[in-house]
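haha ok so turns out i had the wrong file open the whole time. this is the CORRECT one, sorry everyone. sequence first:
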Amino acid sequence: MATILKRATTDLVAIAWIKDLVGDIVATTVPRLPETGIPTWAETGFVTVHTSSGGASMYVPMRMPVVLVDCWAASPNSVKPPWNKATALAEAIVAGCLDHQNNPRLLTLPAGYPNARVLSAYTVQEPRRPVIPGGGEASADLGSWARIVLALQLHWVEVGS
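then structure:
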């Protein structure tokens, strides 16, 4: 049986890049809510990412994806969505795009994957509250969650370890 070589992916790169900015509260999905009690991330908020579009360079091994970023916050003991907490996460990511002294940035990906270098990162969509057609601004669940969305363009390359 052939061994499959693990390669860096845009989701892994985006998670690692954003973790450098906001800490270990980033993944491709929001953690499962506990059966009882408050989610562990309620105090900090949580960030999810997924690749939306983009492509790769025709002549060099560089990727140029657009990554959709959702910044989540919850108020388990209130019906008022914590918009400021979700917005603060989004603005920390925007500030990371503008931190030119720390870009390009070498990233360590999970064990078994080669490292990656983000050459540039910038927003292609301002942080905003999502809109549901016909429903106005929307929170995620029963009014106690806030969600701020933005889109990033990343230029990145895989590098040897």
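The first helix runs from residue 10 to 22.
again sry for the mixup
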